[in-house]
Amino acid sequence: MIRYLIIDDEPIAHRIIEGYAKNLSQLTKVGNCHSAFEALDLLQSQTVDLIFLDINMPQLSGFDLLKTLSNPPKVIVTTAYQEFALEGYELNVIDYLLKPFSFERFLKAVNKVKTSSKKAVRENVDEQADESIFLKQDRKQRKVWLNQIRYVEAYGNYCKVHLEEEVLITPERISALESLLPQKSFLRVHKSFIVASSYIEAIAGTKIQIGNRFVPIGQTYANAVKRLLKSE
How far apart are CA 140 and CA 128, in angstroms? Predict the structure, then answer.
């Protein structure tokens, strides 16, 4: 799901983009802003993956707005001015749509966003594949690759670390493992369980499916799981 925001001082531009976006089920609108200042307020309160950004707006231009954002969402520029295209690409915009643009051109730009997102995921997976931790097992410290861990289960004063092909039992409390595992890839979902988000196959009610196992979601951790669902 791609959560998008339209920033443009022309109401007709909003209607055109909204009309095109309705044909694409992966796009969900989070807001309409008619000035850069209005957008700054919204970006502080909403999660936005993609901005359709006009350049020529009063008081603060689209590019000036973009330069103020420390971690901007992906941006597709929508403008009538082709002379700013180079500056746009220097600001790492995904695409540059010249008004008026067709649905086919709009779709091509959105597909670039999807391709960009998949590339980022692949890079994250590749990065994680190179990461490992050492866990106590018997009288040795065993190296465990993070991308092999499916979930962790509390087991008294020990933990069962469920790997792809085996279960490792380590004399560590689950709280200690929670602090050891990266938050970007692992989520505490119950007082007795931590799951690797990449292995989650389904979430149904108060259960998470990982392979043939259904992991319970604790009431305390339900909001964290909801946030995960919204971010996917």
Answer: 24
**Sole residue written with tokens 């092909």:** 165
At residue 120, φ and ψ (nearest 5 deg) are -65, -40
Structure tokens, 121:
């995921």
Q: 208-232 pLDDT, tens per residue?
A: 989 888 999 998 888 878 776 655 5
Question: What DSSP letter does each residue of 22-77 carry, written as one string?
Answer: TT-TTEEEEEEESSHHHHHHHHHHS--SEEEE-S--SSS-HHHHHHH-SS--EEEE
Cα separations (Å) of 89 from 7, 19, 74, 79, 92?
Answer: 18, 26, 12, 14, 5
pTM above 0.70, yes or no: no
For residues 184 and 124, give the distance between their C-alpha atoms in angstroms, rounded to a whole number.
Answer: 10
| Distance from C-alpha of 200 to C-alpha of 117, rounded to nearest angstrom | 19
